[in-house]
Every structure is written in structure tokens, then in C-alpha cells.
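[Meeting: bench + compute handoff]

Bench side (C.D.) handed over the final construct sequence. Compute side (W.E.) agreed to return the predicted structure before the next meeting so the bench team could plan truncations. Sequence as handed over:
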Amino acid sequence: MDTLRGLLVRERRGEGIVLHDATTGREYDARRLLTNAWKTGNFLHHCGVRSGHTVAIVGRTPEALLGFLGAVSIGAVTRFEPSPTTDARAVIAPTDEIDAFELPPGGTKIAYGDPPDDAHVEYFERDVWSENPTLVPATIDPDDSVLATDGGGVTHTAVLTAAESAIESVAMQAGETIAVRAPLSRPGTVAGGIVAPLLADATITLPDGDIVADVAIASDDAPEPRSLDPADCF
């Protein structure tokens, strides 16, 4: 695997749980997660997002992760927790936050959660659901950026290398739960908390106040017996 798109190939679909949102109780097995990531990629493509374009994403929810994986599938670049005046081609945010964003001409606002009142705002749950469950053809180079940060772009190669390092650092095993406790705006959180669990067949866990997972991706103290600071991934 030389790009993150390799995480989304059909052969990786299966019945094991790979995403658990403890706040809502939602669970995704690999089949459901990948199918919805493909649909999200198709929807972003229909919104005009192309390889190299930026998708801005707000939140630490299943919709945010699907937005990231959908962007990955078409070669787009994700910026988590963007500023309101972002230059992104599309922004994915909770409905009660979507109006705060100003996009360049041609940009698309995509809300998740409650249906938006504004007819010019797309509705994630409705529009992604209606898309075809196929992986959009795309040509992606390992040296292409997959994450945008204030310090510049982070490549597919860098994220995969960091994810593999995270797996080794905490001895991440298949079937373990990985609590994502640090902000997704940090590349190390994405590498250690999203990409590494998918590579290791572990479960990405979006924790509530009570859950204790096997491993934490956290900058501060965490209840998990093993923990990794995102800063240590790069």
C-alpha cells in the first residue's frame, strides 16, 4: 500500500467492527464503513471536488471520518477544524455550525446532523445515502498531500509511515479498541487514531465520558492502559 486509497479497496471489506461512536452507539463494520466512504467520495466528486482540492471538515464524528475517507478516495486534501474563511472546495460541518463558513465561488457547504433550513446547503445524511456505492477512479501519487495543516501539506507516504510507527509503538493488535482523544487537526491523531487502526484491523473508537479503550491517542492523561501522543507520530 503506497497511498491511503489502499485502505478503501473492495478486498478490505469485512464483518469486523472498525468504527464505534460511543456517544451515539453507532457501529460500522468494514463493509459498511468502506461502502459509505465510497458514497461520500462520489458525493464530493458531484460537488465539484477533484484531486488536489481541499475538503474542510469540522467535528470528531462518523460523518467527519467518512468525509476524510471520501476525500482520500478521490485524491482530495482534508483540513480538519478549518477557519471560517477557508479556501476549501467543500466544507463538512454540523448543521448548527455550517453558516459560519465562507467559501470561494463554487464551494459547497455540506451539513450533517439536523436537516439544514437553507436550501443552498447540502445535507450529508440524505445526499451521501443516495450515491452509488462504488470507488471513484482516481490516480494518486504517494507524494501527494492528503492533509492540510498550517505548516503545509502532509503526504500519503508520511501518514502511512507514521501510522505504521504508531502500530509498532503501542503494539496495536487486531480487534483492539483505539480511543481518539486528541484533535483531528493534528496529523498524528489522524495517523495514529484513524489510519493505524484500519491498517491493524483494530476499532476506531470515538469516546464518550465513560468508555475506556485498549489504547488512547491523546495529548493529555487518558484512562487507557496504553497511550500515544500524536506528536510522537511525526
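W.E. noted at the follow-up: The first helix runs from residue 30 to 46. C.D. will use this when planning the next construct.
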